[in-house]
C-alpha cells in the first residue's frame, strides 16, 4: 500500500460554542488544518453523527466544502461517535487507492443547540432503537450495565474506577482545546450526581460543540511538508449493534479485532506504542480499552491504573490530552484524537510525552458496534 | 431633586426549604444548596397573587412617601405572573390604593426586570413634568416547573417605589443594556417557563449585568469603590457574587442586598427587594448601585444617593426583615396545593 502521512491538523476548542454555528466550527478547524498543511485537498470526507437532529442540517459534504471554498468531491461519513475516525479512514483509503494524493478529513458536531434531554435522545439514535432505546436505555445506561457487570465480575471498586476521570482531568489541565481545565479528586467523582448507577456525572463525557480536521497526503506529497506523521494503520471492525447480542459485555469485540489488524498491518505489538488517545466516553470505556487494545489481560486493566502505567510518565500513557472526558463533539472526536496524537509525535503537545514516537487512537461508535484503531509514527 | 420618595416591600409568609424539594425529587440537598446557594424560598398563600402583593407593597411605599395617593399620576406594575393575560393587574391595584381615576397605567413584562423598567418610566414622566408622582411596582408569584432546577428558587414577593420629589434616595443616573437573547421564556398557554440551562449564565445574565453596570459606571464616571452598597439581580445565590467579583465590587457591599438565600428569586421583585433591604439600613450620603436582569434579555442599572429624610420615613412601614422573619414552613404537599400544581 502507498505510504500516507498526516501533514496538517486543526481543531476548535471543545465546549459550549453559543456564538458559533456548525458551519463556523467546521470553518475554524478546516482553515487551520489547510494552513498547517499548505496543500490543497483533492477530496474531502466529513465525519458527523447527527447534524440532522442536532442542527437540522444534512448534506454536510457540500456544506463543509462550500464553507472552506473547496470545489472538490466531498462526502459525509456516519458511524455514530466513530464518524470522525471513519472519515479519516475513508480519506486514507482514497489516497491508498492512488486516485488522490491529498485529501482532508474533517469532523464536526454542534450539540448544544438542543436541550440536554433532546441531545441525549438524539445520541441514543446510535444504539438499537428496537432492542435498546425502546426499553428506555440511554448511553449512560448502556455503559452503566457494562460497568456493573465488570465491577462485579472482576472486583473493580467504585473508587478504582474513579481514578480514570481523576487522571484525565489532570492530563487536560493545560490543554487549550479542552472543555474543562480543572482537576478533580476521587471524592469529587464519588460525590458528583448519579447519572446511571454506578456511573456519576464525572464519569461521563460532556455534550460538546467542536470540530477537528486533518490533511492527509501520499508519500510524494508528504515529503514536501514539514513534520509529516505517518499512518501505519487505520483498521475498522464491526460488532452487534445492541449490547444483548454481543458475545460478552465486558469485551468490545470490535476493538479487539480492529487493534489486532492494526498491529499486524503496522508490524507492531502493544509494547511498541508510546501513547494512546482512547475513547473514554464513560470511565468504564477507557478501562475496557486497556484490555481490548492488548495492554492488559482481561480483568487486570485496573492494575495499569493503580500502578500509574497509564499516567504521564508511565509505560503507556492513556489520553494525555484529557480525552473525551474534556470534550466529546461526537462526529469530531475521532479526528480530535488524531490531532492530539500528531501533536505528540511532532513533539509539540500541551502535555508532551518525552520521546513519543508511536501513537495510537481508538474511536468507538455507539457502545462499540463500530471501532476504529489507528497507529501513527512520527518522523523524528 | 427626583428619586425614590417612598419604598415598600412585601413577602408572603410561607416558606419551603430546599431540602424538602430535594427530598421529593430524590436529589442531594447539600449539592443543591451548594450549587444554588439557597436555603429556602417564599410561597404565596392560595389567595395571593401579583395583584394582592402589589397592593401590600404599594401601601407601604405610599405610607413612606407621606403623600396623598391621589397625587400619583402613573402606575406601572411589572410582573411575569400577571393573573390575567388580558386585563391589567394595575387597575385592581390602583383602585385598592385609591389612586384612580386620573391615572396613566399599564402592566409591564420583561421577565425579572419589569419592575426596574417601571421605575425608569416613572422617572421620565416625573422629570418631564407629566406627572407629580409615579408608582412603580415589581411583583411575582414565579412559576417553577416541578422537578426543574428553577423550582428551588422561583419565589413570591413584591416591591413598590413612589418616584417623585422629596426623595429618601435620589436616582442620579440610569443606564440600560438590551439584546435579543432567548435564555428563558414562557409561551402563550404554557404553565411553566423553559430555559436554556447554562445558556442563562454567560451569554445572558453575566453579559447583560456586566455591560449595564459597566455602562452606568462609564456614564457617571464612578468606580466600584465609590458605592457603599451594590445590588444585582439574584436568580440564585451564586450569580450575583460572581458578577460582583468580575466587576470589582467587594463582597461585603453585596451582602445586605443578597436576600435570595432566605426568600428565593422573587423575579420582578428580586433586585428591588434587594434594594429595599439596603434602604432599610443605609445612612444619608451613602451611594447604592442597583442592576436588574430580565431574561430575553436586558439589564437596567441605577446609581442612587441616600438622603436625610430616609431616617424619618423608614419607620413608617415594615422593614423587609420583618417579612423575612415572619414565616411558616410548609411541606411539598402543601406547596403543591397552594401553587395549584395538582391537575386532575
Order of helical and strand elements of chain A: EHEHHEHEHHHHEEEHEHEHHHEE
**What oligomeric assembly is this protein in?**
heterodimer
C-alpha end-to-end distance of chain A: 22 Å
Residue-averaged pLDDT of chain B: 96
Whole-number total of structural domains of chain A:
2
| Cα end-to-end separation of chain B | 55 Å
**Largest binding interface between chains:** A-B, 8 and 10 residues
The CATH superfamily of the largest domain in chain A is known as Thiolase/Chalcone synthase
User: What integer value in Å does the Rg of chain B equal?
Assistant: 18 Å
Q: What series of H and E elements makes up the topology of chain B?
A: EEHHEHEHEHEEEEEHEHHHHEEHHEH
What is the beta-strand fraction of chain B?
A: 15-25%
CATH topology of the largest domain in chain A, which one?
A: Peroxisomal Thiolase, Chain A, domain 1
- Low-pLDDT parts of chain B are none
Number of DSSP helical runs of chain A: 13
**What is the top-level CATH class of the largest domain in chain A?**
Alpha Beta
Ranges of chain A where pLDDT stays below 50 over 5 or more residues in a row are none
Q: What is the name of the CATH superfamily of the largest domain in chain B?
A: Thiolase/Chalcone synthase
Amino acid at each position: 500500500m502507498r505510504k500516507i502521512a498526516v501533514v496538517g491538523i486543526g481543531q476548535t476548542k471543545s465546549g459550549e460554542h453559543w456564538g458559533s454555528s456548525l458551519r463556523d466550527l467546521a470553518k475554524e478547524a478546516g482553515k487551520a488544518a489547510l494552513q498547517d498543511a499548505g496543500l490543497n485537498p483533492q477530496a474531502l470526507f466529513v465525519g458527523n453523527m447527527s447534524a440532522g437532529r442536532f442542527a437540522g442540517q444534512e448534506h454536510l459534504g457540500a456544506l463543509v466544502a462550500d464553507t472552506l471554498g473547496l470545489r472538490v468531491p466531498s462526502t459525509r461519513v456516519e458511524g455514530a461517535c466513530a464518524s470522525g475516525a471513519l472519515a479519516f479512514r475513508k480519506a486514507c483509503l482514497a489516497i491508498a487507492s492512488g486516485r488522490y494524493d491529498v485529501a482532508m478529513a474533517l469532523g464536526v458536531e454542534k450539540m448544544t443547540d438542543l436541550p440536554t434531554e433532546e441531545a441525549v435522545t438524539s445520541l441514543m439514535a446510535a444504539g438499537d432503537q428496537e432492542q435498546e432505546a425502546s426499553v428506555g436505555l440511554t448511553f449512560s445506561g448502556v455503559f452503566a450495565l457494562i460497568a456493573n457487570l465488570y465491577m462485579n465480575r472482576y472486583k473493580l471498586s467504585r473508587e478504582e474506577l474513579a481514578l480514570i476521570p481523576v487522571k484525565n482531568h489532570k492530563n487536560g489541565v493545560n490543554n487549550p482545546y479542552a472543555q474543562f481545565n480543572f482537576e478533580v479528586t476521587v471524592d469529587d467523582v464519588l460525590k458528583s450526581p448519579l447519572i446511571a448507577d454506578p456511573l456519576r456525572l464525572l464519569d461521563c463525557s460532556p455534550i460538546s460543540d467542536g470540530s477537528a480536521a486533518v490533511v492527509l497526503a501520499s508519500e510524494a506529497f508528504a515529503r514536501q511538508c514539514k513534520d509529516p506523521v505517518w499512518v501505519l494503520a487505520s483498521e475498522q471492525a464491526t460488532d452487534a449493534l445492541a449490547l444483548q447480542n454481543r458475545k460478552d459485555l465486558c469485551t468490545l469485540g470490535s476493538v479487539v479485532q480492529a487493534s489486532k489488524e492494526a498491529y499486524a498491518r503496522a508490524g507492531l505489538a502493544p509494547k511498541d506504542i508510546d501513547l494512546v488517545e482512547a475513547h473514554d466516553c464513560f470511565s468504564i470505556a477507557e478501562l475496557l480499552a486497556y484490555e481490548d487494545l492488548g495492554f492488559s489481560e482481561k480483568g487486570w486493566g485496573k492494575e495499569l491504573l493503580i500502578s500509574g502505567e497509564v499516567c504521564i510518565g508511565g509505560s503507556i500513557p492513556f489520553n494525555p490530552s484529557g480525552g473525551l472526558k474534556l470534550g466529546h463533539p461526537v462526529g469530531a472526536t475521532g479526528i480530535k484524537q488524531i490531532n492530539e496524537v500528531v501533536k505528540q509525535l511532532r513533539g509539540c503537545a500541551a502535555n508532551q510525552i518525552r520521546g513519543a514516537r508511536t501513537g495510537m487512537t481508538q474511536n468507538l461508535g455507539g457502545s462499540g458496534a463500530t471501532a476504529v484503531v489507528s497507529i501513527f509514527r512520527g518522523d523524528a | 431633586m427626583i428619586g425614590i420618595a417612598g419604598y415598600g416591600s412585601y413577602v408572603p409568609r410561607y416558606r419551603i426549604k430546599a431540602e424538602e424539594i430535594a427530598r421529593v425529587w430524590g436529589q442531594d440537598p447539600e449539592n443543591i444548596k451548594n450549587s444554588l446557594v439557597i436555603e429556602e424560598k417564599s410561597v404565596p398563600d392560595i389567595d395571593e397573587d401579583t395583584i394582592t402583593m402589589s397592593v401590600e407593597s404599594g401601601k407601604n411605599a405610599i405610607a413612606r412617601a407621606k403623600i396623598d395617593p391621589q397625587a400619583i399620576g402613573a402606575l406601572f406594575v411589572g410582573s411575569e405572573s400577571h393573573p390575567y393575560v388580558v386585563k391589567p393587574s394595575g387597575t385592581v391595584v390602583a383602585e385598592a390604593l385609591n389612586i384612580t381615576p386620573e391615572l396613566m397605567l399599564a402592566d409591564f413584562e420583561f421577565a425579572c426586570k419589569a419592575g426596574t423598567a417601571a421605575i425608569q418610566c416613572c422617572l421620565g414622566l416625573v422629570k418631564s413634568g407629566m406627572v407629580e408622582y409615579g408608582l412603580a411596582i415589581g411583583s411575582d408569584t414565579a412559576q417553577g416547573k416541578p422537578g426543574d432546577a428553577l423550582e428551588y428558587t422561583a419565589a413570591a414577593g413584591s416591591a413598590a417605589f413612589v418616584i417623585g420629589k422629596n426623595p429618601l434616595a435620589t436616582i442620579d443616573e440610569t443606564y440600560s443594556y438590551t439584546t435579543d437573547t432567548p435564555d428563558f421564556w414562557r409561551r402563550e398557554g404554557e404553565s411553566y417557563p423553559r430555559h436554556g440551562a447554562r445558556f442563562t449564565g454567560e451569554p445572558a445574565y453575566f453579559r447583560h449585568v456586566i455591560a449595564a453596570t459597566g455602562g452606568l459606571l462609564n456614564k457617571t464616571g464612578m468606580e466600584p469603590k465609590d458605592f457603599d452598597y451594590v445590588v444585582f439581580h439574584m436568580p440564585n445565590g451564586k450569580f450575583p457574587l460572581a458578577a460582583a467579583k468580575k466587576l470589582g465590587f467587594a463582597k461585603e457591599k453585596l451582602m445586605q442586598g443578597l436576600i435570595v438565600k432566605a426568600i428565593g428569586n422573587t423575579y420582578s421583585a428580586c433586585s428591588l427587594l434587594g434594594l429595599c433591604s439596603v434602604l432599610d439600613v443605609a445612612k444619608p450620603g451613602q451611594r447604592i448601585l442597583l442592576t436588574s436582569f430580565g431574561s430575553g434579555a436586558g439589564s437596567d442599572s441605577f446609581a442612587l444617593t441616600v438622603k436625610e429624610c430616609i431616617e424619618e420615613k423608614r419607620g413608617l412601614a415594615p422593614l423587609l426583615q420583618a417579612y423575612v422573619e415572619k414565616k411558616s414552613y410548609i411541606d411539598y404537599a402543601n406547596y403543591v396545593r397552594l401553587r395549584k400544581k395538582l391537575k386532575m
